[in-house]
Design goal:
oxidoreductase activity, acting on the CH-OH group of donors, NAD or NADP as acceptor, binds nicotinamide-adenine-dinucleotide, two-stranded antiparallel sheet, Rossmann fold, oxidoreductase, single chain, 3-OHacyl-CoA_DH_NAD-bd, alpha/beta, 2 domains, NAD(P)-bd_dom_sf, 12 helices, eight-stranded mixed β-sheet
Length: about 300
């Protein structure tokens, strides 16, 4: 028997590359009637909306989406100023997906606020790439809720990881990561939601990096180390994997697309949480992030991306 996701109003936290993509597939593919988008930066929020419109235009021009479907998707997107507005005059979210910066303290604060303002029935999902979902879920308890009370136990049970891939409109996979607190019903509804967004779904235990980044990030990190040690040039490292292994893009290009800050943060999580030296982040990766070279999103990474 198929499970209904029951999401009529979706909240998305973060209008960066992931949050925007999630809002896009939710509005266009899953046809969620109201998709509320929020970002801590007003500039990023308006940039996100402009990008949403550009994506729609491109899909219409390519004949992938009809003009009327594009108009309907645009009409479903609503911007809100703050997290509290997910339970405000524009509606009450049935599900919120957090796609803010990969930083535990940032995510814990967001989940605390969401749990304080939204009903217990609202699913609280994180798109984290590597942080312990159980730790994020533990912060999904409202302010003033007594430790040990029924609500203090129940509230984290509506939290889980819903891990979309970049770029969200293109990549067909979603990885679900139940926290150790997550209720089975929440996993079933989230699977139905991801499928409605047009995605195939896999499930991973809540371990550092889950399945996807436990395999991908050490591979990217090794490519950065190969560059750092002068084993081969940037172009030859990428070309080897593209032409020799049939990868659609080389690991250094992929790192630029993911964001070097995100890659570093995932490696740091793997290293810290396993205490295994095989996950030591490449020094060069750290230095590039120190320099503000975050990859495609900042205009410079292993490659240059001049502003259009
Ligand atoms: N980039 C990828 O390839 C990828 C893939 C899968 C998952 N993820 C994960 O998705 C999340 C977002 O990644 P991204 O690449 O979109 O990052 P990004 O830097 O493009 O966007 C993050 C956005 O979050 C906003 N933000 C930060 N703190 C906030 C807060 N307190 N409230 C509201 N908005 C806030 C920032 O202003 C920014 O616009 C991270 O957890 C990341 O690990 C990234």
């Amino acid at each position: 028997m198929s499970v209904a996701h029951g999401v009529k109003t979706l909240g998305v936290v973060g209008a960066g590359q992931m949050g925007l993509g999630i809002a896009y597939v939710a509005a266009l593919k899953a046809q969620i009637p109201s998709v509320m988008l929020c970002d801590a930066s007003a500039g990023q929020l308006s940039k996100g909306v402009a990008f949403f419109e550009t994506l729609l235009k491109k899909d219409v021009a390519k004949g992938k989406v009809s003009q009327s479907d594009a108009d309907a998707a645009r009409a479903r997107l609503v911007t809100v100023e703050k997290l509290e507005d997910f339970a405000g005059s524009k509606g009450i979210a049935d599900m919120v997906i957090e796609a803010a910066t990969e930083n535990l303290a940032v995510k814990q604060k967001i989940f605390g606020t969401l749990a304080s303002t939204l009903p217990l029935e609202t699913i609280l999902a994180t798109n984290t790439s590597s942080i312990s979902v159980s730790k994020i879920a533990a912060s999904a308890v409202g302010a003033g809720v007594k430790p040990g009370s029924e609500e203090a136990w129940k509230s984290p049970a509506r939290a889980l990881g819903i891990h979309f891939f970049n770029p969200v409109p293109v990549m067909p996979l979603v990885e679900l990561i139940p926290a150790i607190q997550t209720a089975p019903e929440v996993v079933d509804r989230s699977r139905a939601f991801a499928q409605a967004c047009g995605k195939e779904v896999t499930t991973s235990k809540d371990v550092p990096g889950f399945v996807s980044n436990r395999l991908l990030m050490p591979f990217i990190n090794e490519a950065v180390m190969a560059l750092e040690k002068g084993i081969a040039s940037r172009d030859d490292i990428d070309k080897t994997l593209r032409l020799g292994m049939n990868h659609p893009m080389g690991p250094l290009t992929l790192a630029d697309f993911i964001g070097l800050d995100t890659c570093l943060s995932i490696m740091e999580t793997l290293y810290r949480e396993t205490a295994d030296s095989k996950y030591r982040p490449a020094v060069l990766l750290g230095r590039m992030v120190d320099a503000g070279w975050f990859g495609k999103k900042s205009g410079k990474g292993f490659y240059d991306y001049p502003a259009k």
